[in-house]
Amino acid sequence: MAHDEDERYWGRPAVLERGGSQIHYWVVGPEDGPLVVCTHGATMDHRLFDPQLEALVDAGYRVLAWDIRGHGISKPLGTDFTVPLVVDDLMAIIDRLGDEEFVLVGQSFGGYVSQELLFRYPERVTALGIIGSTDLLTVPPRLEYLALRLTPFLFRLWPADHLRKVIAENTAETPAAKRYAYNATCQLSKREFLTVWKAVAVCHHAEPGYRIRRPFLLTHGEHDGTGTIARDAPAWAEREPDCRYEVIPDAGHNANQDNPDAFNEILLEFLEDVVETG
């Protein structure tokens, strides 16, 4: 989507200058609607949630989507890129809006950001929705964790444009979603990509006995082959006290883009059950 077309769809972005980055965000929907905060995955941007915007707004929700620092038009990245820093960025935006409570929806890395925010500020979060992510607060088995820690070094050796094409091909199922993923990934330099991926590789932290004490929607695409997401999701759902687990048919890692009709129906049903729209 071209910049002017995106602006017609989401409106003009607001900008928060924080920690050396110009962080861009968009708020769409009724002013008195419950706030749904959408956070994209690594190398994507706010447009990941294009297929959800109209459905959420029509249902009475106010939508906050943003470009994480270094992604989309939120530049520069900075050097100290971590999940806690991104959480602080997001909380600064939400506090500027003045909302005391909100729903979190996060895809992939955005799922990690959403989980970390809930862990740190549980009193602020009404409900959590996850698309294609793993449990941030459980450290993977030793060999898998070691492999994850090594991925930034492997990516360093990979030619940048070929890496972008591979990411796009393996992130989505539909041609349109693949084109978007490639376009979004091209907005990051190779250096920015490596900095982001280092944060992904080290963000897990073990919190024994921790449970998500909020209504929790856990989803992933039927064909999501990223990491151990599909393998680990059933066990994660089983140990959480208030989890609805759904597999999005005919969808890959960016499941909300690959099959928005199925995902939107599930998300709106979940929100209707757990959020008061007035």
UniProtKB/TrEMBL annotation:
It comes from the Archaea. InterPro entries: AB_hydrolase_1, AB_hydrolase_fold, AB_hydrolase_sf, Epox_hydrolase-like. Residues 34-259 form the AB hydrolase-1 domain. GO terms for molecular function: catalytic activity. Coiled coil: none annotated. PANTHER family: MONOACYLGLYCEROL LIPASE. This is Pimeloyl-ACP methyl ester carboxylesterase.
